[in-house]
Amino acid sequence: MIRVNVRLREWREDDAPFVLRAFQAPDLRRQAPWPVVTLKDASGWIASWAGVGHAFAVVADGPEGARAVGNVAVTKVDGHGNGWVSYWVVPEARGRGIAAAAADLVARWAFEERGLYRLELGHRTNNPASCRVATKAGFLPEGIERGKLCYDGVRYDVERHARLAID
Asked: Which terminus of the chain is more solvent-facing, meaning fewer CB atoms within 10 Å of its CB: N or C?
């Protein structure tokens, strides 16, 4: 059971400065569909979720009070009751179980509120931290997709995980 206290909320326009700062982290730059280098880009990223899935700001308590620390989303919902989960947390909030708690919360939301049956996610096999997040959030490993991703001319294998509503 995940015991980290996080909550999910809708992204707001006033979150744009946070989104801009978040995408300055080298490993998060690849998480955006385009470079997020201005407040306008960050606002566009927030607005881009409309109609393509559902993304939530992950909020956790910190020294300055409750604040956004990441993103969790369900996209690619199909007619079979399947969806795709993605998540990220800013570097300074990592290692506290926040991503796993957020992935668990979004899975519960997707099963209970959206009526989905199966959720999938994937991570590069050279990213053991993301594998731990998936496993802690109840997503079971299902196999390796060889050479699925390509960054800077380098191919990466991806491990797929899934969680069912009945798990």
From this structure: N
The amino acid sitting at 116 is L
Report the phi/psi class of residue 37: left, alpha or beta, with left for phi > 0 and alpha for psi in -120 to 50: alpha
Per-residue pLDDT of the chain (167 residues; tens, 9 = 90+): 456 789 999 999 999 999 999 999 998 988 888 899 999 999 999 999 987 889 999 999 776 678 999 999 999 999 999 999 999 999 999 999 999 999 999 999 999 999 999 999 999 999 999 999 999 999 999 999 999 999 889 999 999 999 999 99
Across the strands, what pairs with 62? Answer: 65
Domains of the chain: 6-119 (3.40.630.30)
pTM of the complete model beyond 0.85? yes
Q: Does residue 37 sit in helix, strand or coil?
A: coil
Lookup: tokens for 61? 């308590």
In this structure, the strands spanning 82-89 and 65-75 are antiparallel
